[in-house]
């Protein structure tokens, strides 16, 4: 559903505009509702899910046993911090202040379409991510099967 990299601006009130290419999809297929939450795997980024996709993710995360510390951390980062937003008449959504602070999301940011969700990164964190290459010893078995 979502793919590509878009440079965006977060305004002084903490709002970002949903790229125009996605606004119809967000309105039609997402019920005009999106959910911000932390990325539990990469510090410095947040995820933005269509509401229906988020509900499936949330339900899976909440089924994890809270006996394990990593499960509790995932539940806190994903479900505990989740914030439902709806684009305004200009297609803007408010990025939660706590997430802006925790991830150093300031004026310049990058929105990545990642299939069923978006990733939102500060410009600097995004540059650091794309400058990292994947070393041969880091390749997963699935990646070894890719014909790239």
Automatic annotation (TrEMBL):
| Record keywords, A-Z | Cytoplasm, DNA-binding, Repeat, Transcription, Transcription regulation
Where is the protein found, in the record's own terms?
Cytoplasm, Nucleoid
The primary site where this protein sits is cytoplasm
InterPro entries per record: MraZ (IPR003444), MraZ_C (IPR035644), MraZ_dom (IPR020603), MraZ_N (IPR035642), MraZ_sf (IPR038619), SpoVT-AbrB_dom (IPR007159), SpoVT-AbrB_sf (IPR037914)
Tell me a Gene Ontology molecular-function term this record carries: transcription cis-regulatory region binding
Record keyword Transcription regulation present: yes
From what superkingdom does this record's organism come? Bacteria
- An example Gene Ontology cellular component term from the record? cytoplasm
All copies of domain SpoVT-AbrB, residue ranges: 5-51, 82-125
| GO term, biological process aspect, one | negative regulation of DNA-templated transcription initiation
Q: Does the keyword Zinc apply?
A: no
Q: Which family does it belong to?
A: Belongs to the MraZ family.
Give the NCBIfam families listed for this entry. Answer: division/cell wall cluster transcriptional repressor MraZ
**Subunit (UniProt):** Forms oligomers.
Name of the protein this chain belongs to = Transcriptional regulator MraZ
What gene name does this entry carry?
mraZ
């Amino acid at each position: 559903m979502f793919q590509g990299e878009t440079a965006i601006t977060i305004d002084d009130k903490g709002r970002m505009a949903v790229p125009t290419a996605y606004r119809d999809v967000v309105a039609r297929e997402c019920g005009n509702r999106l959910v911000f939450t932390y990325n539990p795997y990469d510090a410095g980024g947040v995820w933005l899910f269509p509401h229906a996709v988020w509900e499936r993710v949330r339900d899976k995360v909440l089924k994890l046993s809270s006996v394990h510390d990593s499960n509790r951390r995932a539940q806190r980062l994903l479900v505990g911090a989740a914030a439902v937003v709806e684009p305004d008449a200009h297609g803007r959504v408010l990025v939660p202040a706590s997430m802006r602070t925790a991830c150093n999301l300031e004026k310049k940011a990058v929105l990545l379409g990642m299939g069923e969700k978006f990733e939102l990164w500060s410009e600097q964190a995004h540059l650091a991510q794309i400058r990292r290459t994947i070393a041969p010893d880091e390749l997963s078995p699935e990646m070894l099967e890719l014909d790239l």
